[in-house]
Design brief:
Layout lengths: L2 H19 L12 E12 L9 E11 L4 E13 L5 E14 L7 E15 L5 E15 L4 E11 L9 E12 L1
Antiparallel strand pairs: 1-2, 1-8, 2-3, 3-4, 4-5, 5-6, 6-7, 7-8
Length: about 180
Amino acid sequence: MTTYLKITLTITVLLCITLPCNGQTESSSDEKTQFYADYMMGTYLLLDDVDYKSVILNGFRLGVKPSKRIAYQMEYLIGSQDDRAGITGTTHTANLQILYYLNDQKGKFSPYIYGGGGFFEFKDFSKDVLGVALNGGAGTEVNLSNKIAALAEFRYINLGPLNLQGTHQIGVLWGIRLKM
């Protein structure tokens, strides 16, 4: 079994195991499942000796919060940058993530930690690479109203499964959330 398949199966099993448990967390009769959509942008600072320069990414994220403390989301981010040979290409990533909120979210700030992984590709460069990448990090929602929040996140990206020289990268993302 390939490493990529093992990682994908592990993430899928973890999501399936934790999903039924969410109904057993502290809840009130008026608590409803919340859906949200985010516009995200930010930079992946490709610092750890890879053949590609840092990239500004833009994209969207869709999520569901079945309880006060847990959320699941999927995102797609895309950007364009040069590699070290001066050839311009596209970097894109599609991820599944699970979030855990560190407070009850009654105040203005709602900090969280998250982890996940998904598809990552450097395309149309002098050397194209695609595969699975893992990520994790921390962030916060700043509630601007009942329906809108600003977001800021720090992300660690592990590009190890892509077999590049540099595996440990960081990202900083920010965005806006519409709660439905």
